[in-house]
Every structure is written in structure tokens, then in C-alpha cells.
Amino acid sequence: MPTQSDNNTVSIIVNGKAHSAWSRYQIDSDFLVPADAWSVSLGLPEGAFPTGITRGAPVQVKIGADVVMIGRIDRIRRAASKRGLTLSLSGRDNMSILVDCAAPLLTSRQIGLEEVIAQVVRPLGITKIQLNAESSMRNDKISTEPGERAWDLLHRACAGRGLWPWFSPDGTLMIGGPDYTAPPVATLILRQDGKGNNVIQLDDESSEDRSFSELTVLAQGHAHTTKKSKKLAIVDVDNASTATASESDDEDNDDDELDMYTGTAETGMHGLNARAYDPSVTHYRPQIIVCGDAESQEQMNYRARKAMADARLAGYDMTAVVAGHRTSDGRLWEPGQRIHVISDVHGINAVYFLMGREFVGGRQDGVRTTLRLKEDGVWIPDAFPKKKRKRHRKHKNKQQLGIVDVG
Predict the structure, then answer these.
(1) Taking the C-alpha atoms of 68, 69, 70 and 71 in order, what is their torsion angle to the nearest 10 degrees?
(2) What angle do CA 89, 164, 180 make, to 5 degrees?
(3) CA 269 – CA 128 distance, rounded (Å)
(4) What stretches of 278-385 adopt beta strand conformation (E)?
């Protein structure tokens, strides 16, 4: 029967061979950092450097029997001294090639988000993609700027739908956002009387420097050869954390005047804009973002909600340090989980979203995990929007979650 120590053993598998018993290790994963990273070091007092470990070699990082990350070795450092030999390795997950390398040159029209992503990542060796959202949208035009990083193009394509790209532990490129209806995986407790405490340290920080009461996104749109003119208007964007989209009440006889200022789908549009609000900011703090070209007013609404969600997200941070790398039921901590936090010291009793976590261990440091928590339900608000009930609809929605084969 495996012990708790066995469940926390970190192994680096290179060329089918597992290397463990590290004197120190660090494994970091965060939604807001494009590529997850790992580093390990090992002292070899009387041994020799292992063979078969080379830069760029594919690796699999495991904790116990669970895969944490799939990627490649970035750096190898071999040091020799009177005390013996020391081997240090570091690397990142498969997102690293998208962060480091240029995107393939492409120009396409009327292409779906899944097709855009496949054309960007397939030449770089990534073949497993999963759409983790209720729906995607088609792009009228997508093109690569010479020298543009693959990550930047991927991010730009996803931002038009209000989504985010990241890699799952098994090496699948995920496109979408979190499911905030999932139940919390654990409860963190910090009480003054010490009863039931399972947190070593708990910090939280609130700030206003990157938060805004009102955020306006401006853009212009290129001419669409396959679309006809639609009514355009300023859209107020609002939901549980920011403002929900509200349609214009203008009469039909105002359309001509509106087109004169914004243009049409056939000629291009120069007055696209959307506005979002954050009710948690109690005094007037406006911000304007110019995002260049946009496909449609719908895309502007997504961008406004995403920008306001990011601004609100930056206003609060919580950090918890816990022993071990697993929850009480044996699951590894993983970004995307929801966690219930109870602290009478801070006056907190609520559910938070796990944005990132760092595994640290070694002979001197012990085994600990740092959890980086954010306000629940704020990040990527449009991945799984609340479905509106429609009359006269008897059939079920088609399943929108699946693997996209790009091999």
C-alpha cells in the first residue's frame, strides 16, 4: 500500500527512465503564466552524471502515480566540486514552444476558432486540443504578422471569444475557461483556537490601482464581404461580476444616422465600442482600451467583459501555504479547482478559485504547496454563460465539449 511519502515523490521521466530522490524541486502552474515550469536538483557525492539527459528531451513530471506536466528540458547544469557532483534540470510544459517560437504565416477568411488554433499549433507538434466552452465563433479574417509569436496569435484568436488557452497535465491544449458550477475540492481552515486548522499560512491583499468602475473598449472593423449591415450601438456589459449586455432600444428610423457614424459591414466600421462596469468599485474610475480591429459588436462585448474581469481579478489576491501536495481525499492541487476557505482571523467564509499553485519540496524544505487564490466566478466569464430558456425548443443542445483532431 503506497504511503503519503510515496504519493508525494517527484519523478522526472526522460527516455523512459525515472529519476527521483531530488534534494530540491519546484513545480509551478498558473493560468496567468503562459508556460508552466519545473526545476529539480540532485547531489551526487560519489556518483556520476546520468546519461541520456539532454536539452530539449521530452519529459514527463509525475508526483506519485499522477502526471503533473508534460514538456521538455530547457536547461541542464552540471557542477563539480570537492563535495561532489550536482545536477540541476529545469523545463516547461508544451506551451513553451508557443511562447518561444514564431507562428506559421497564415491568412484565412471565414474560419472557425478551432481551425485557427489547429493551423497555429499543429506545425509546432501539438495535436491534442479540447474546447472547454459552450461555443466558439467564426473569424471573418485572421492573419499572422511576420515574427509574431505563436502564443500571441493564439491568445489573440481566443480573446475574440473571451476564452483562454492553457495546457492540462496530460499535455492537451485546452481552450475555454473554468466551470464555476463544479463543487469545491477542499476546505482550508484557519481558526484562532486552532481547531481543525490545516493551513500553515494565509495572506490576502486588496488593491485598487488596476481596478476600474467603468471600462470602455474601442475598435474599428474591416469590411466584411459575407455579411450584411446590422444595427450597432453602445452595449452595456453586465453579469454577476461585471455588467450584462443590453440591446439598444433605438427605433428603426435611427439606423441611417447610426450607420453614418459607425459604417456598415460591407464598408467597414469605425465606431465599434462596448462598455463594462464593476459595481465593487464604489467611486468613479474610468478606463479606455483601444484594441484595433474587431470582427463584430458581439466580439467587442466579449472583449469588454474579459477586460473588466481581468481588472477586477487584479484587485484581490489570496495566498495559502499547506502541507503536502494533495487535498484530504488524495487529489493533487490543480489550477481550476474551487476551494472553500474559512478564516475567523480574516473574517472569511467563502469559496475561491485556484488560479495557480506551486509544489516545493526537498530534504531541508519539507513538502509544501503554495496556493494562489482569486475571487470565484470572475475569470473568463463567457466560457460557460448562463443559458437562456427559449420557447418552442424541445430538442436538447448538442454537446459542445470534445476533442478536436488535428493530427
Answers:
(1) -150
(2) 105
(3) 37
(4) 286-293, 316-323, 338-343, 348-362, 368-375
Closest by CA position to 3, among listed 387, 367, 398, 397: 367
Could you report the per-residue pLDDT of 227-245, keeping only the tens digit for each? 544 444 444 444 444 443 4
Chain segment 170-205, per-residue pLDDT in tens: 999 999 999 899 999 999 999 999 999 999 999 999
pLDDT of residue 253: 45
- The burial class, CB within 10 Å (0-12 / 13-18 / 19+), for 203 is exposed
CB 114 within 8 A of CB 129: yes
Task: Output the pLDDT for position 75.
Answer: 97
Q: Compute the C-alpha angle 177/141/407, nearest 5°.
A: 60
Phi, psi torsion values for 90, nearest 5 degrees? -150, 155
Radius of gyration of the chain (CA): 24
Q: Does the predicted model carry a pTM greater than 0.85? A: no
Lowest mean pLDDT among 165-169, 270-274, 290-294, 382-386: 382-386
Report which of residues 98 and 139 the model is more confident about. 98
CA dihedral sign, ordered 332, 334, 338, 340: positive
In whole angstroms, give the CA distance from residue 390 to residue 126.
39
What pLDDT score was predicted for residue 18? Answer: 92
Structural domains present in the chain: 4-91 (2.30.300.10), 98-177 (3.55.50.10), 186-207+315-375 (2.30.300.10), 214-313 (no CATH)
